[in-house]
């Protein structure tokens, strides 16, 4: 997960600093379309220089949020502040905000050069400054050699660069990216991810990206917000969101996770014990939140945190804090790792990921093997909602 | 590729023959020496020469050209505005009715269109004493109502596949909506405007029925003059004139099709490049 995360130079983490003032602020923003609620009472703070991702499935309201920031939609209620100014009802052509459209929306009747200079010409800049910013913008995205080309003569990746240059030369306070990588192939996507982050750090503009691809937003963002049904469910760094999800929805949406329903039987000072119908053993989870005994909870365990073995290991070892027994039903071979689908006695299926460390034709664990699954108590997550 | 059957080729040939042999015969006989239209007597250009000295025909031709130019320009302006209203303003109340009404002249028999416009002019004259007398102006107005329906259809088709994110991108880059129309929409629908203009021009140039209703004494369009001279007996001079019109109209239609399709191919996103 997020293995290609680029090294970020952002040393400060403004969201940690209580004195830091948010650069973009949404206050109780709601949006209705003909009586249908697209967004309800959403509040969000984003700091200067961030690369913030909004992640969610289709129809969760993420595009509506982006369009409200751009000015194409006005909030039904609530306020949007950008750099301290109320922008809620300012039209798009008067906002210090630019957007990179999913379709790139390059003007088909203009050359690359004319496309990039289009926004600059509206600002009544001197000819010299326009030329200078145009050159810099094209150089930034490495498209200087394509000035006279028409958009239809460019590849998807090149169009994307031109679209990026076109919005960056305006030097906006905020750049919005609507699924910027959705139409690129996998290799190009990975390269572009790194480039976007590099460019963002170089120009220092705050980026807000909308995406449905969790891998892409985890790789690129300083922080991300997970959206569902017009509301932000959780905001945090990629690491926080992945390792400390605050709800079943977020845990399930980001990566894959094994979920066990259960009831808290004991709350000791260092861990919580949960009895689940799926498992014969009591689940032990390191203490993270105080949950009173008797409460209905869900325990989540990520597949890569689960060890799989054909032989039982000694109870003394740390690993053996949580244990389950089952039969391998299926193996997904992904090259670098294999995902084992293990059926427990009551039919519950558990996923466990194991790296393929050795080049063997025969896997150490194979179909229909009787296996033992282990995980440490600190790898469990207690979810109450 | 699929093999074409003999029956298919046969019916194709018959179909095209039925459509084009009369026109080809007409063109051939415009080069006839003989005065009699149906007997071939040798090749000559003399009917084209005599056409040049026929003042009545030339005057009517000039009227037709004047009318057609005004009509096509007016029709493009009005038709574009109508098409914009139909595609851009969302689902306003009465949109379907408006859309139907604006295209009604396309299927209305010309006799009815012509007659109703004539009645309109007559009653207007009684009420407000305008138009004083019928002529170029009334023909232009009448033709515009018909041609505008065609232009609306052409421009509306073009606007229907217009990518509205382009307009949003323009607004986003700091252009006001009114200016965005001239910088983005207009250049991109220009081919449709050009083909609409040519279509309107051809329609106006062709029309006999409506023009006959609304023209006044002393003002005749080319088709009216041709039609009346046919009643007195046709000379190959008419064939020559008809040939020129056929050439002119087919050039116009070809040009408008070419403009329309070339541009729409250009703007389609091609991922393969």
- Overall number of structural domains of chain B: 1
Helix content estimate of chain B = over 70%
Instruction: Tell the overall outline of chain A.
Output: globular
Distance between the termini of chain B: 26 Å
The H-and-E topology of chain A, N to C, reads as EEEHEEEHHHEHEHEEHHEEEEEEEEEE
> What do we call the CATH topology of the largest domain in chain A?
Rossmann fold
Category from helices, strands and their pairing of chain A = alpha+beta
CATH architecture of the largest domain in chain A: 3-Layer(aba) Sandwich
As residue ranges, the low-confidence spans of chain A are none
Unreliable stretches of chain B: 267-273
CATH T-level fold name of chain B: MetI-like fold
Going by CATH, the architecture of chain B would be Orthogonal Bundle
Q: Spell out the CATH superfamily of chain B.
A: MetI-like
| Number of helices, counting only DSSP H or I runs of 4 residues or more of chain A | 8
State the CATH superfamily name of the largest domain in chain A: P-loop containing nucleotide triphosphate hydrolases
Number of strands of chain A: 20
Main sheet: strands, sense, barrel of chain B: none
Global mean pLDDT of chain A:
89
Oligomer: heterodimer
Question: Could you characterize what this model shows?
Answer:
The complex is a heterodimer of chains A (385) and B (273). With 385 residues, chain A is α+β, with helices and mostly antiparallel strands. Chain A folds into two domains: 18-249, Rossmann fold (3-Layer(aba) Sandwich), CATH 3.40.50.300; 258-383, Beta Barrel (OB fold (Dihydrolipoamide Acetyltransferase, E2P)), CATH 2.40.50. Chain A has helices spanning 62-70, 112-121, 127-140, 156-168, 186-203, 214-220, 238-243, 248-253; strands at 24-33, 36-46, 51-56, 77-82, 85-86, 97-100, 174-178, 206-211, 223-228, 231-236, 258-267, 271-276, 283-286, 296-301, 307-309, 322-333, 337-344, 349-355, 370-375, 380-383. In chain A, strands 6-7-8-3-9-10 form a six-stranded mixed beta sheet, sandwiched between helices. In chain A, helix 3 packs across helix 4 (156-168). Chain A is globular and about 75 Å long. The two termini of chain A are 24 Å apart. The model of chain A has no long low-confidence stretch (mean pLDDT 89). With 273 residues, chain B is mostly helical. Chain B has one domain (54-267): Orthogonal Bundle (MetI-like fold), CATH 1.10.3720. Helices cover 77% and strands 0% of the residues of chain B. Chain B contains eleven helices and no strands. In chain B, helix 3 (55-88) packs across helix 10 and helix 7 (164-172) runs antiparallel to helix 8. Chain B starts with 5 loop residues before the first helix and ends in a 6-residue tail after the last helix. Residues 267-273 of chain B have low confidence and may be disordered. Chains A and B meet through strand 6 and helix 4 of A and helix 7 and helix 8 of B.
